[in-house]
Structure formats: structure tokens, C-alpha cells
Specification:
The chain is mainly beta and 153 residues long. It is 12% helix and 40% strand. It is built from three helices and eight strands. It has an eight-stranded mixed β-sheet with strand order 1-4-7-8-2-3-6-5, with no helix packed on it. A hairpin with a 3-residue loop joins β7 and β8. It is globular and about 40 Å long.
Length: 153
């Protein structure tokens, strides 16, 4: 006696998918040519922002709210005088996952280094993203002395 088991096509695809074993998708960052338009809600945080205008280097650390459901996890960065993104590192943030009661945010931390035109005085700095679950968000500066995002109409 032979037994045949029919599985829905979706289950077959999941069986070959190793997303759960691989962990979060690669986080990317892109420079924006202009500040974002209005319409973003606050979400996430810019914990620190260090600017060395002599070396032309901006370093930002913080956390985002990008969840695994988001097909393309990308941070969009705007800073006047920005030339390129030098590096992006993902950082574990168990504090964020616990505070927001969402284990999907365990890898929500990041550090980005941006190359600036040497001598630039950064007066406008924005980090945005669009998450499938949380929607379009603007990272909130953590301290009152940080450079703020001036959105465009």
C-alpha cells in the first residue's frame, strides 16, 4: 500500500526556505539627495551623532523599527554635505526588543559612518525607513543638542 501526501505549494516553498535559519535580511543604507517630505511618524532613535568636520566624517548610532516582513530593509540618510556611506554595522538591541515587546527588533541597532565634504557644518540630518508593519518612520534625535531633520514640503 502506498500513501501519497499532497502539500499546498506554499508549504513546499517554505520547506526549501532557510529565512528562519539565516536570521534578519541584510540592512542597507542609501544617501538621499534631499530631505524627506512630511508624512513620517517618529519611530526609532538616533542615540548619538558625532561629526568631525575636519576629517569629513559623520558617525551615527541608533535603532530602527524594521521588521522581518519588510522586503527591503533600508535606511535612507540625508545630511547636507554627505558624499557617501562608508560603513554600516548592525548591532543587537535586546533593550529595544524588550521595551517594545517585539523580538523581531533584536537586531534593530546600527552604526553608520558617512563621508562628508571636509569642512561641512551639518545643519540638517535625517534617517528614515519604511517598514511593512510600522509604516514610514523618521528616527528621533535622542538628545536636544543633536542636529534635527528639517523636512521639505
Amino acid at each position: 500500500m502506498s500513501l501519497k501526501v499532497l502539500l499546498p505549494a506554499g508549504l513546499l516553498l517554505l520547506g526549501g526556505c532557510s529565512w528562519f535559519e539565516q536570521g534578519p535580511r541584510e540592512l542597507t543604507a542609501e544617501l538621499a539627495s534631499q530631505p524627506p517630505k512630511h508624512g513620517f511618524q517618529l519611530g526609532g532613535s538616533i542615540d548619538s551623532l558625532a561629526i568631525d568636520s575636519g576629517k569629513g566624517l559623520l558617525t551615527v548610532r541608533g535603532w530602527h523599527m524594521l521588521t522581518p516582513e519588510t522586503a527591503r530593509p533600508e535606511l535612507e540618510i540625508y545630511a547636507n554635505g554627505a558624499e557617501s556611506i562608508l560603513s554600516l554595522e548592525r548591532i543587537d538591541r535586546p533593550d529595544v526588543a524588550a521595551e517594545l515587546d517585539n523580538p523581531d527588533l533584536m537586531n534593530s541597532g546600527f552604526e553608520i559612518q558617512v563621508k562628508l565634504t571636509p569642512g561641512t557644518k551639518v545643519t540638517n540630518f535625517c534617517v528614515t525607513f519604511d517598514d511593512k508593519h510600522y509604516g514610514p518612520r523618521l528616527l528621533n534625535p535622542h538628545s536636544p543638542d543633536q542636529v534635527r531633520c528639517k523636512m521639505r514640503d
